[in-house]
Design brief:
By secondary structure, the chain is mostly beta strands. It contains no helices and 5 strands. The two termini are 15 Å apart.
Length: 72
Amino acid sequence: LNDITWDGLDGDGSPLEDGEYSLNVTVTNNDLDVPCEVLQTGPVEGLRYDNGVAVVQVGGFEYYVSEIYKVS
């Protein structure tokens, strides 16, 4: 796994306004695309049930328990 931290600055070093931003990751090896997956880590902020299925809240997003890879 690779950790990526964004400092909130644009390419010229100027701070960007608060808002929603996205991250796109492309992995290549010898000019061939390699499948990859972007994962999120963070403390659990809440838990709710949706029709009997547990939904975990992390970083302002909700994930079904079946989408969680690791708990530590």
